[in-house]
Structure formats: C-alpha cells, structure tokens
Amino acid sequence: MKTKAISSIFLLFTIAAGIISMSPASFADHSEVTITPVPGSGASDSGCEVDGCYNPSTATVDVGGVVIFSNTDTASHTFSSGVPSDDIIGTEFNTGILEPGDSYEWIPENIGEFAYFDMIHPWMQGTIIVQEAGEETHSEEETHSEEVVEETHSEEVVEETHSEEVVEETHSEEVVEETHSEEVVEETHSEEVVEEAVVEVVATQESEEKGGGCLIATAAYGSEMAPQVQLLREIRDNQLMNTESGSAFMGTFNDIYYTFSPTIADMERENPVFKEIVKAGLTPMLSSLAIMENANSESEVLGLGLSVIALNLGMYIGLPAFGIVKFIQLRRN
C-alpha cells in the first residue's frame, strides 16, 4: 500500500510539473515577426550560410499575422519568396530592392512553409512557417491529454499482478527499442537533408564567389551551371577581378546592373517569350566577350576590354541606328 501511495504522489507531481512547463509555450505569440539580414551577409565570403543569413533564419507566424522585412544592413537587399532555381519567384511576396533602413510588411494568407532568398545575394536564404493561430496550444493540449491517459494506464498496471507487470515491462522495452530505431532513421534522414542543403549552399557560394550573380543570364538560360553563365563568371573572376582596371570596372558596373537586373530577371521568369528575346539578345554579346579569355595582363584587359565595349556599342546601338536612318531615307525616296 505504501508503494502505491508513493507512486500516486509521484504521478501527480509529474503531471503538475508537465502542465507548468508547457504553459509558457502555450501562449507563445506568433502574431508578428521581424526578419533582418545578418550584418555583413551581403559579402560572398561572410560565411553566413552556416548559421543563417537572416535573423531569425526560420521564422514562425500565424495566418493573418504580420511579417516585417527590415533592412538593417549597410547593403541593399531583397526578400523574395522562392529559391534561385525557381522559374517564377515572388508568388507569395517580393519586397523589391530595400535600401538600408527600408522595410516591407507582408500579411500571410496561406498555411505552409515558404522559402525566400535575396535576389542580389542569392546565397542568403531563409524559411517562414505560417500556421493557424493557436495551433501550437492545441497540439500541446492533445499531447498532455495523451500523457495523462498513458500515466493513468500505467498506474492501473501497477495494481495488477506481478506477472502482468513483467509482460508490460517486456512490451515497454520493445516499444523503447522501436522508438530508438525510429529516432535513428529520423536522425539519418535529417543528416542526409543537411548534407544536401550544404551541397546546395556550397555550389551557390562557389558560383557567386566575387560578387552578385548574373541574374539576367541565369534567368535566360535557366541555371547558374549553364555554359553561357559559366563563361561570364569565368571572365569576371579570372580576367577582370584579377586586375586593377577590371576590378574598378566591375565595381561601377555592379552598382548600375543591380538597379534593374532583378526586375528583368522577374520578367523573364514570368514571360517565356520575353525570356527567348533576351536569350537571343545575349548571344552576340557572349560571342564578343569570348575575346576576353585571352586577356591576362593589365594592359591586355584594358585594351581588349575597350575593344569589346566598342564592338557591343556598334552591335546594339550603331547597327540599329544605321538601319533606322536607312529605313527613313528609303521612305522619303
């Protein structure tokens, strides 16, 4: 009898402690969350992919709540739903370019997990979990009820015969073994998912080593691994970024390029016809840029670079202008 009394007191104490420990989480507030970029995450060598480039990296919010994207960094950023490899991005939200100090609010209407990334710095990726309001409390109440039922059942088992206790104990050991096996499977699966995520992050980081991504070309050819995109990346990293004049040119070029390239990349993903037009327009430029593969010194980069610029101005501006003038003359005659 004393053993039963002690067991009952211990059981009541355990239930009370469980209720107290779960109470704070039951009232967790997910009606509003603010997401900010980690300081310095816009640099390709920041290494933020390991611990997350956003704070928080995974955010939870209720349906109808408010998500505030606040750019507290010193560089420009975007918060765009999707992943860099998607054909269409921003289906849930797209802040556009947020300058330092700017912010944007999004009110989620659908339940689920939504990945997002920075179009200017594609290695920056995060996740937003949208849930029903009070979902966490409901699930915890169910768990608590199940625990109470299990504990009550255990108390009844204690009152049964010694042979039944032995059977129950054997069954419990089997359940523990099964649970352990399931945990091992889950841990193995989790490790595989983490490894896949790391591989994707490393591939993305390697492809964007010395600056932002080639957004327009990537959207046109469908992948960062496309030969045309790799050609642009190799010229940038191997020729231009290894010389003083080339680095200066890329700095100025990037400041201008990223003011309009995210918009054009969006248009390419949304309009297949426009995507094919851009792809056709990029072909002459890619052919002319192949000349830069022969530039190794400062003087060669400067000389061949100016030649390529002049050639492209002639192809994209000179020839169309000449054609328009000739057409007007023919109309007049």
Please give a quick description of this structure.
This protein has three domains: 31-131, Sandwich (Immunoglobulin-like), CATH 2.60.40.420; 162-207; 215-332, no CATH class. It contains eight helices and eight strands; from the N terminus they run H-E-E-E-E-E-E-E-E-H-H-H-H-H-H-H.
Top keywords for this entry?
four-stranded mixed β-sheet, alpha/beta, Immunoglobulin-like, 333 residues, 3 domains
Integer average pLDDT: 75
Whole-number count of domains: 3
Q: How helical, in percent, are the residues?
A: 55-70%
Number of helices: 8
Distance between the termini: 118 Å
How many distinct beta strands?
Answer: 8
Low-confidence segments, ≥5 residues, pLDDT <50? Answer: 22-27, 137-149, 151-167, 197-211
Structural category is: alpha/beta
Shape: elongated
- Beta-strand percentage? 5-15%
Instruction: Encode the helix/strand succession as letters.
Output: HEEEEEEEEHHHHHHH
